[in-house]
Amino acid sequence: MRMTHALVAAPVLLALAGCGQSVGNGQQSGGAKAKTVTIKGSDTMVILCGRWAEIYMHHNPGVKVQVTGGGTGVGVAALINGGTDICAASRPMKDKEKAQVKARHGKDAVAPGKEVCETPVALDGLSVIVNESNPAEQLSLDQLDGIYRGKIADWKEVGGAPGRIVCYGRENSSGTHLYFKEHVLKNQDFAANVQSLPGTAAIINAVSKDKSGIGYSGVGFVVPGVKEIKVSAKEGEKGILPTKENVVSGVYPISRKLYFYTVGEPAGEVKTFIEWTLGEEGQKVCEQVGYYPMPRR
Amino acid sequence: MRAGGVLSHAEAVSAAAHGNDAVAPAVSPLARKSSGAASDLVAAYLIKACACLAIVSLVLIFVFIGKEALPVFTSAEIRQEAGVGELFLPAAEAPAFAWQPVSEPPRYSLLPLLAGTLKVTVIAVLAAIPLAIAAALFTSEFAPAWLREIIKPVIELLAGIPSVVIGFFCLMVLADWLQQAFGWTFRLNAITAGLGLSLAVIPIVYTMAEDAFTSVPRAYREGSLAMGASRWQTAWRIVLPASSAGLLAACVLGFGRAVGETMIVLMASGNSALLSLSPTESIRTFSATIAAELGEVVVGSSHYHVLFFIGAFLFVLTFLANLAGHWWIGRLQRRLQGAT
Known about the structure:
Structural class of chain B: mainly alpha
Largest sheet of chain B: 2 strands, antiparallel
Oligomer: heterodimer
CATH class of the largest domain in chain B: Mainly Alpha
Order of helices and strands of chain B: HHHHHHEEHHHHHHHHHH
CATH architecture of the largest domain in chain A: 3-Layer(aba) Sandwich
Number of strands of chain A: 11
Distance between the termini of chain A: 32 Å
CATH topology of the largest domain in chain B: MetI-like fold
Largest interface: A-B, 28 and 33 residues
């Protein structure tokens, strides 16, 4: 669902931004002209950035924030070519990409080694949930991989009561589906009998009613009837619950940071915008959209 | 697109069932040349235009779907990934039949989806048709007038329930009841979705069947009763056979609705593309696949064209069912007319 909104949101925001062009830091151009901040990149983040842009523009009528999706790779390419002020990325930038930015924009850097400025803006993680009556407490990433690829079919193999494991997941158009596939299944296919449900709420409902069910959802959706499983990166390690602290500190294995990248230290309107997203109001938006806020500094 | 197809068919069938009286009002204003002739003419053309608009839009929809589906046959690039062989024949590597469109490389076998669609449709039709026809027979032949005035609108009201509401009911309530009653491993399965689907099919079949029963001439019933037959014998041996053409039309329409219904199966079937015959396993239908995947697909990719191919396939499937239904109805009607 998040992706669906993203696709709808992108053109709408483009339309809102109107004729606003990518003119770098609006402050520098000055005058009566509307200041424009452009954000390009991760589809996962389009809805989040769209909300931020909406609220920010509401507070600052003179500023236009233009959000475009296309994927992290598209955003990085745009940052290298100078086509965007901010690159939204759902993964850290690769060294090779940083080197490209450095080669193109080395002169703009404030200080050596600071050619690319990385600002984590939100945290994204997935909870693994089972029915509250399920005795299983913890699963490793390898066990999850086996369960969702159909290699582990019975709960007794992973510490539950004997019985067939019923896997619930999202449709293949969902960003959550792709994230789980990439991070847990290492890009292998889901088993054919994984049931795809239309939305996180449907998964949670199904697991709350199905004693042998297992599902995944965004963090922070736990309701009575389901419990979160502790996840360990490797078999035998201590399992970790996706509490706010564990996700925020980065020890929970199925979580990632969402970043804003800029060329050099952000300045002017871009800086004000990024600082606002990290502030109290901006971080509250993260939680509303379904992510965790960044740890307070 | 699906609703359009079914509706136009409904009109066609009801026009056939009631003779040609539906066409008459559109023609008569033209014949009457009075002071209001000009406005009559305008009204007649407006009505004609509306009728043509329905046909034109239906044709345009089909042309659009066909055009987007065509690359499955014509484009060399897409045929490599999703040619007709990949869609219907077993693949070289296991599993032989897999619907994994976001896999690398993507797998586009349609057979699991076809199996799911047929399974859920058969279950829905088997559950709905006997119930709907029996209900229609009761209201038209046995129920006292006051009871008929209650039952008929209530069942017809069922058609007004949005399918997403029925789907939600199946997902949250019906699935639990069935799992508790039968202890199935999978909560969401072909039977759950099929029973939900039958809720959408029942009002259509009921309304058509009721129409068919009431259009049986009174003389048939009176003759039968006069010969000493009981009401049940009259209903079973006279009214039922005499309205068989209308009943068949009802079944065909019910089938069309079941094949094309999307929201109920999307929510209640579990959507896993399995090639199996077991009715207690989860299924994925054509319509749900289109609904779930078309929103995010890259325009022009093989996945996109395969989804349109599925749409065209569904279109052809219901079209053939309707055509066969029409042909059979015509035959029945001729035979009945010959017999009287």
